Amino acid sequence: MKCEIIPERCIACGLCQVIAPEIFDYTDDGIVLFVGEPEATHEFIPKDQQTAVIESAKRCPSHAILYQDS
């Protein structure tokens, strides 16, 4: 599965990091980014983390997280 984050949409609620802490982190301003790849906007998600990423995307109030099944 491929995941895309759109930092410009992020409202810094922090839900994604709570739901999927191994995938999502945030900047000092609370804006979403990928753990270990702060400049990336796309990342392939390991199978064992896909459920958490889907849940994060569904619960994101600003639709800053998108995913596409591969």
From TrEMBL:
PROSITE patterns assigned: 4FE4S_FER_2
Name of this chain's protein: Ferredoxin
Xref: InterPro entries: 4Fe4S_Fe-S-bd (IPR017896), ET_Ferredoxin (IPR052395)
Domain 4Fe-4S ferredoxin-type, first and last residues per copy: 1-29
Domain of life: Bacteria
Coiled coil ranges: none
Cofactor needs: [4Fe-4S] cluster
